[in-house]
Write a structure and sequence with these properties.
By secondary structure, the chain is of the alpha/beta class. It has helices at 17-26, 42-51, 80-97, 119-138, 162-172, 183-189, 193-201, 229-238, 266-269; strands at residues 3-7, 31-33, 55-60, 101-103, 143-146, 177-182, 208-213, 244-247. The protein has a single domain (3-269), classed as Alpha-Beta Barrel (TIM Barrel), CATH 3.20.20.150. It has an 8-stranded parallel beta barrel with strand order 1-2-3-4-5-6-7-8, surrounded by 6 helices.
Length: 272
C-alpha cells in the first residue's frame, strides 16, 4: 500500500506555513515535504513535526535567487562556491529535521544578466557539483535526488528527461545519488509512465529515490486528468518501492475537501 506525504508548499495554502503541519496531520498524513524551509529556523519546523507526529521526507537545497527567477545552482558555471555553501546549509537543516532526501535543482540554461554557456559546459559543472553534493551527504546518510522538470512549466530547465537523469546518476556512480520521479513532469515530457517506472525502479545503479504525483495537465488532485493513478499505485507497490509518494499538487479548492482520492489509502498514509 503506497504511503503519501503532503507537500506543504502546494497544499494547505489556506493556512500559514507553520500551521500546515497540524492541518496535514488532522487529515491523516504522517509525513510531509516542501520546497524550501530556509525562512524559518530549523527548531521551529522540528517542533511542528514533533508536535504533530510527522516525518519530514524531502525538501530542496537553496536554489539561488528564486524570487529573481533562478531555479537551482547545480549546473550553473561560475556558481560552484555558492552551490557548495547551499549544500552545507541544506545538510544542516536535514540533520535538524531528520530528513534523508534532499532535492538538488539543476538550474536554468539561460538566466537574465548572466553569461550564457553551452549545454556541455552546464553538464560538466552539473556532474562535478552533484558528485560533490552526494559525497558531502554520504556521512549524514542523506540521499541526493535530481528531478527532470517539464519544459512547459519551467522553460529552459537543464534536466527534462528520466533517461538523462538516470544516465547522469550512473556516470557519477555514488549510491546516495538517485532520481526523483515526478509523474506529472514525466507525463508532460515523455508519457509512458508505467514502462519508465518498471525500467528505472529495478536499476542496480541510480534508480528512483522519491516519487511525486499530481493530476495532468493542470496539476490538481490526482483523481483528475489523463493519468490513471490507481493503476500506477498498484504498479509501484508491485515493484517494491518502499519510499513515500509526495503529493505535489495544487488543490482545486480547499485541500481537505479534495482528499477523497486518498480514502482507499488512508491506512498506509497513517503508517510511519
Amino acid at each position: 500500500m503506497p504511503r503519501f506525504a503532503a507537500n506543504l508548499t502546494m497544499m494547505y495554502n489556506e493556512h500559514a506555513f507553520l500551521e500546515r503541519f497540524g492541518a496535514a496531520a488532522r487529515d491523516g498524513f504522517k509525513a510531509v515535504e516542501f520546497l524550501f524551509p530556509y525562512e524559518f529556523p530549523p527548531a521551529e519546523i522540528k517542533a511542528q513535526l514533533v508536535d504533530n507526529g510527522l516525518k519530514q521526507v524531502l525538501f530542496n537545497a537553496p536554489p539561488g535567487d528564486w524570487t529573481g527567477g533562478e531555479r537551482g545552482l547545480a549546473s550553473l558555471p561560475g556558481r560552484e562556491d555558492e552551490f557548495r555553501r547551499s549544500i552545507e546549509i541544506a545538510l544542516d537543516y536535514a540533520a535538524a529535521l531528520g530528513n534523508d532526501r534532499l532535492h538538488v535543482m539543476a538550474g536554468l540554461m539561460e538566466t537574465p544578466h548572466a553569461v550564457q554557456h553551452s549545454r556541455g559546459q552546464h553538464r560538466d559543472v552539473y556532474i562535478k557539483n552533484l558528485a560533490l553534493a552526494a559525497s558531502m551527504a554520504q556521512s549524514a546518510r542523506v540521499t541526493i535526488v535530481i528531478e527532470p522538470i517539464n519544459t512547459r512549466d519551467m522553460p529552459g530547465y537543464f534536466l527534462n528527461r528520466q533517461d538523462e537523469a538516470q544516465a547522469i546518476c550512473e556516470e557519477i556512480g555514488l549510491p546516495n545519488l538517485q532520481v526523483q520521479f515526478d509523474c506529472y513532469h514525466c507525463q508532460i515530457v515523455e508519457g509512458d509512465l508505467a514502462v519508465k517506472l518498471r525500467r528505472d525502479m529495478k536499476r542496480r545503479n541510480a534508480g528512483i529515490g522519491h516519487i511525486q504525483i499530481a493530476g495532468v495537465p493542470y496539476r490538481n488532485e490526482p483523481d483528475t486528468g489523463e493519468v490513471n493513478y490507481p493503476y500506477l499505485f498498484d504498479l509501484i507497490d508491485s515493484l517494491g518501492y518502499g519510499g513515500w509518494i509526495g503529493c505535489e499538487y495544487r488543490p482545486r479548492a480547499g485541500t481537505s475537501d479534495g482528499l477523497g482520492w486518498l480514502t482507499p489509502y488512508r491506512h498506509a498514509s497513517r503508517a510511519s
